[in-house]
Amino acid sequence: MIDVQVDTEKCDGCEECVNLCPSEVFQITDAKSDPYQAADCANCLTCVESCPQDAITVTEM
């Protein structure tokens, strides 16, 4: 199981994660990234590497 977290204090809603995630894990909710499909995460870390605000963490549980 993969846990995907977004630090909403850091996230500015730029949509990089939405646009780049191959598993379509993210959507924008209230101007912030929301990993609403975290169960579909492939643990590729594209979101973590592309986030300009360093707001996303992905951990294997």
List the helices and strands and how they pair.
Blueprint lengths: L1 E5 L9 H5 L6 E3 L2 E3 L11 H5 L5 E5 L1
Antiparallel strand pairs: 1-4, 2-3
- At the first level of CATH, the class is Alpha Beta
- What's the shape? globular
The average pLDDT value, as a whole number, equals: 98
Give the strand order of the largest sheet, numbering strands 1, 2, ... along the chain.
1-4
**Percent helix:** 10-25%
C-alpha end-to-end distance: 5 Å
- Poorly predicted runs: none
CATH topology: Alpha-Beta Plaits
Strand content: 25-35%
Strand and helix order = EHEEHE
Describe it for me?
With 61 residues, the chain is α+β, with helices and mostly antiparallel strands. It has one domain: Alpha-Beta Plaits. Helix content is 16%, strand content 26%. The chain is built from 2 helices and 4 strands; from the N terminus they run E-H-E-E-H-E. It has a two-stranded antiparallel ribbon. A two-stranded antiparallel sheet has the order 2-3. The longest helix is centred in the first third of the chain and has 5 residues.
Short description:
This protein has 61 residues and is an alpha+beta fold. The chain has one domain: Alpha-Beta Plaits (2-Layer Sandwich), CATH 3.30.70.20.
Index terms:
16% helix, two-stranded antiparallel ribbon, alpha+beta, Alpha-Beta Plaits, 26% strand, 61 residues
